[in-house]
Give the backbone structure.
Amino acid sequence: MDDDRRELERAGDAVSRYSRRAFLQAAARTAGAGAGAALLGPTLLGRAAALAAPARRPAPVGNLLLVQGVDAESLDPHVTTSGASKGMMWAMYDKLLERSPEMRIIPWLATSYRVLNETTWEFRLRDNVFFHNGEKFSAEHVRDTIARFKHPGIRNVYAGQLAPVKDVEVINPLTVRIHTDGPFALLAEVLSLYCEILPRAITSGQVDPTRQAIGTGPYRFTEWIPNQRMVMDFAERPHFSGQPKVRRLVWRPVPEAATRVVELKTGAAHLITPVDPLQVPELQATRNVELVTFRQLSSQIVVLNMLKVRAFQDVRVRQAMNYATDVDTLIRTVMRGAAYRLASAFGPGIPGYDESLQPYPYDPERARRLLAEAGYPNGFEVTLTTPEGRYLNDRLASEAIAGMWTRVGVRTRVQVMDWSPFVQGVLGKTHDAFFFQQVGVLLDATTSINFDSQRKGAAWQGYHNDEANRLIQEAPRTLDPGRRNEMYRRLNQILHRECPWVFLWNQQGIYAIQKRVKGWVAHPDGIIRLGGISLA
């Protein structure tokens, strides 16, 4: 720990005297402009001190039963995409950096970082960390993991987030330098959300990560029976965060909201998510149960596939789909008020949010008129695909939207799919339209995978606008936070006008937990971090 402290102090000194101070200041401000903020100098020092490995700890006790709406898509952390999956993966795997409950960037496997010049970042790594197979964590694991994260053969839909990284240099076992192909102010932000560090057993190909998870996290993999349960037991080596405090984790997918509540009330679950707002009064009246609520940053939307449905290539049709969707009624009835209406792609708290943009009003006559002007006076047929249980009332909302669209002539059939094939359809771009959630902490990641017609990312479905492409590609390299925010504001205005999505709402996140669950704090990105969770 003394070494870490000295290093952080040196890093702070270096920051203050570095000749390219403007870059560092801009990088810090850039991070701070988002929902999270990079921490440098004394603040980071305090965080690192808080994460010192405990000398002694009480033995973990009890089995924690967590019930979510969906299962993990894979056991490979580099191909999982949903928040539900990430919560499971992050109990077993660690990243270089993490997020606090306030969404600030905090040290994790890296105890500090500093910017050496516009294209070089140096990370100091935590000592005495071991993977569950006995390998000691070092700088080589960082190098090899980033190489795998970016490898096309992995089919990692988030690989583009580290596209600016051109080289990872091992300085010594506990120091690594990451070189980028230009200014990349968001590197720390990306590493706090992506790129779980893997052992050599996986990066060398000896172990298939889809069959065996081997991380440095507080829990080690025990078994996974898809669509039934994933079981993890506490890792016997103490984790630097002070976790774990419970002996075993059992994660189970339960798509039906009512069943999740029954399981919580009968003791078959200690924590459930999501919770249907209709069930809030029932849970509030239940002894030994409490609710945790928060406003999510993610945007709930319907994505219109312009590659699959020709009509969606016409902006008038896409605007018509927004006019045809009565979002206020959906929030009042389907969501029981547990949502906040969106006017465009980004809501409050996200860079580029523009409060002057107004939501599309519900106007079915105008929708019909736009469809006729676009050459579809008799409408057309479309399938709206939705998961069930992944998002709050996803199936019910999709069925209501289908009815609204059908009333203006867009004859809509609802297709309900399990989460894993649903995601495959998103990646394969085979759904006509789909009920989905995007945006969140890292706006740059979202814009590039959704709207950049050159990158053609995971959730991109055929949208093209030259100015949007330029803004998406230049913003992450723009160090001035004011200018960068203005670029995203302009992008938001373009998306509001051109409607690649039907804009719905920010969902209110609701967890229900038994009161015997102690020490747990929700994160606004909706991903479960266990932190100091324990069972009384």
Summary: The longest strand covers residues 289-304.
